[in-house]
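From the shared-data thread, chain only:
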Amino acid sequence: PVKMMKETKGSLALDRCLPLNRAVLLHRASDEAVASGRAVTVLTYLHGVKEAQLAIETLAALHPQLGVDLVELRSLKPLDLDTIRRSL
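Structure, as tokens:
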């Protein structure tokens, strides 16, 4: 997992602060997948984010009818239950 993160390159906006007490929805399941009961929520943080994104790509290729909400937790305490509940 650490090796995967080291391969990730990008720019950093130094003039923008991210709130650590709020989770972020990185991927949303389709409305069709949610309506048919074929959607799940994945909660992850740190190195698990990249692994989950790769798994979502693989799942979409193999089973396009399934959907995934991917929530990145920026902190575990406090836990952003509002974002988690909205996803569920």
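Residues 48-62 form the longest helix (15 residues).
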